[in-house]
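We close this part of the discussion by returning to an individual protein. Part of our work consisted of pairing the sequence of a single chain with a tokenised description of its backbone. What the numbers capture is local backbone geometry rather than side-chain detail. The amino acid sequence and the backbone structure tokens for this protein are reproduced below.
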Amino acid sequence: MSDKALLQSAFEMLVGGLEVLKILEVRSQRIDYLEHEIKDLKAEFLQIGYGPRRPKQITVRKLFLEQIEEIFSLSYEALDHDPWTKDKVIVAAHEDLLKTLDRYDQTFQISKYSEPVIRFRLHTIINFIYCQLIDNGMASTDSQKTFFQCKTELESIITFRGKRRTLTGISDYTLWYKEAADESCPLLILEAKKYEERRFFTQLLSYMGIIHQTRIREKKNDTVYGVVTNSNTFEFVCMRNKGRYSRLTYYWRAGRISQDSIVSLLARLMREAAMVSPNTSDAHVEGQQASAAVEAEIWEDVESGPMGDDDDDDDDEEEEEEEEEEDRWCRKLGERFEDAN
């Protein structure tokens, strides 16, 4: 082969090589583009909830007291005496407070147990107590440390009849310390209800169980307090270590002694929230110690109860198979994104 032919052949090979490089470059760009697309799809995939599958929801309204006790390993302990009689009243029902509530009752005599009236009475009592605590130096003046929040959404992953479910509900009032985004920080749950029905107590216990479970999981002080009231009957609940809870009931219209007991008890719980609200992680330990000291004043020790569980659910087998198939599909798709990334 002549030199000219060799040069011609080499030139053609070079041109062919350049074409291949161009193709490879385009493919490389496409690969980069696809990689970015995969990353975006993966982020979107996880964002819309197809990563770990969220268990089906069940609301606290659909559960009975016995079911809530089983779900959260709760047990009731009756008190053989009133643990508050030995405690000094730190805030009493002031004459101005009593006069305001009496006048309001006279104005709305016919509808005194309607929800707006109940909430107004409760707001008046809570605001009076909180202001008294601040004026007497028994509560923090920093609103970021302790504050009340209305309509707080609470939820927890539970096991109900052998299946994982998301228990959800909305509490009327929660007294928070530290941050509202931290579900372990509510100290006091208040439910303002029109009727004195058993299911309202069950709702309160559900919310307390959610917070109690979160505290245990995060290894925090697991004491939680709750109140359910129609602004006349005040039922106080204390849930402590290992899930035992006790109850105290006072009646606002029973007279001045009962009114002082209600105000004093609410004041003690609000004061404790101020004492356990930590500014830093170091202060958290001090807050736990302070909390334990106040708890010793507030409620007697309660200990724990066992948990029974798991009858078969009434869901159809076909629905269960569909859920399992969807779970498998989601896992496979997630693995593909991981491999591609």
